[in-house]
Design goal:
The complex is a heterodimer of chains A (260) and B (303). Chain A is 78% helix and 0% strand. Chain A has helices at residues 2-14, 16-49, 54-59, 64-67, 72-92, 96-101, 106-139, 148-175, 178-193, 205-214, 216-222, 232-256. Chain A has one domain (2-256). In chain A, helix 7 (106-139) packs antiparallel against helix 8 and helix 8 (148-175) packs across helix 9. Chain B is an alpha/beta fold and 303 residues long. Chain B has two domains: 3-222, Rossmann fold, CATH 3.40.50.300; 226-286, Alpha-Beta Plaits (2-Layer Sandwich), CATH 3.30.70.100. Chain B has eleven helices and 15 strands. The chains are: A mainly alpha (260), B alpha/beta (303). The interface between A and B is medium-sized, with 26 and 36 residues.
Amino acid sequence: MSELLAEGYRRLFKGKRFYIVMIAMAVIAVLLTLIFAASNYIINAEIKNETGAAELLETMKTYADDLLFKNSGILVMLVGITAGMLIVQDFRNNTIRNKIIIGHSRTNIYLANLIISVTVMLIYEAVYVIAALILGGIMLGFRNFPNKEVIVNLLLLLPIELAMTSIIVFLCNTMKNVGGFVLSITMHIIVSLFSMVPLLLNKHPKIQELIMEAVPSFQMDMLGNGDIPEHWLRMMLLMFAITFVSTICGILSFKKSDLK
Amino acid sequence: MDYILQTQKLCKKYGSFQALKDLTINVPKGAIYGMVGRNGAGKTTLIRIITGLNNPTSGGYSVFGVSNKDKKILEVRRKTGAVVETPSLHPEMTARDNLIQQTKALGISDEKLDDILKLVGLANTGKKKAKNFSLGMRQRLGIAFSLVGDPEFLVLDEPINGLDPQGIMEVREMILRLNREKGITILISSHILDELSRLATHYGFIEKGQVIKEMSAEELEKVSRRSVHVNVSDTNILADVLNGMGMEYKLTSPNEADIFTPVQVTPLVLALNEKNCFVNSMSEHHESLENYFMGLVGGVKNV
């Protein structure tokens, strides 16, 4: 396994894509900060003009605390671009053969892909959070940070992103082609398009609640600069379950598949 | 005899297509085993199965005496190197970087890489990326990949595809050197049967997913027929004369024929001369691997 990780990390860090996407992640943090700053500037100007509505307008202002949770959807796409492509290219170039021929088990190859993809996710998340904290802190200031809610919610984001990453690895490793890659980078958007569907279940609040808590894309919307979700433990268990199930299914499918 | 690879009634189905059917081969230790077969005969499928890329539908195989159902198969695979169809390379990396990837996957140092690059004639490629390599260079890099782990068993699927005549010669010499100097057992499939016949110490003839014949090069030499190829002014007269002499022959064109029975030249020429048939040329031939294969599978189809 350590050999597969060494091979995979070298391939990851030797390619330009990893660094380009990492810069893109930082740039997104900068852009969001600038947009929030511009929005705050307009709100401040309105406060001066409309002193009566100052209290209401004040609540509309955004801070670095809010910025910390604005990247989750983009992160999935960027992890897909880097990690998903790394996996798909291994199949497209047939370099995956080189590992199987010398006796690496398919289970280890799959798990190495997952570990490398999770590493990408953690690095990109860290880059975003650091950029958002530094630039956001300077330009927007903090509302409550560092407070328990923000830190716990940030930590709760990790299992959700882990589940998303495991799905990316599953799709790319199972489909083995660009189709898997495209699906992995667009899945969050596709799922988000159906975000209104649970609302149709308003007569069944329990089911509605469960769907919102079980779908990673919906969970991301529930986490933010606010209270810790009531069922956070259940949510996290569901995320770990998604990670576990997608990984097991991915390994079983990979073990059965014939490679070119 | 020690065998590096043995298959037992190996079967592989892709949907309803039966690619391998009860295929059994035995690759002796130290051999250069040439696999001969038409397109779609099952050569590459067999190579994919024994290298672990494909799973057999039924039957089994053993590499270095370890069954494919035994977990130890993964350990012995480390002693294997292979080039399957097209070389598997990282296009954005240089030749050396490509090989470093393989040392990482094997968990070994990269100190021998310069020797390997020299061996395959890619020592001077510098910073040129693999995506800019010619087909021949890619082929060599693929072979270099397979040599990184100091394999004891090398599987080469069409290793000289795309190589120029000099490249073919170099790869041939390299294969012979690896076999003779390092004692590496080599399983090789090639469409270029003439080339294969210069390398192989053993042959396996594959047809429709089955091994129809296995033999050593010595055995092939013994069973290969010698013939005299003649070019005459009239093969009808030649046929009359040969029939009269009770000889086995085959007319290959209006002026040419192959005579398989040992022939005394002078009586034949005199007999033909009497009937005003002139001999333009005459040469002795030894039946080639290609001819033997054609005779075995019956027919002149795509090899």
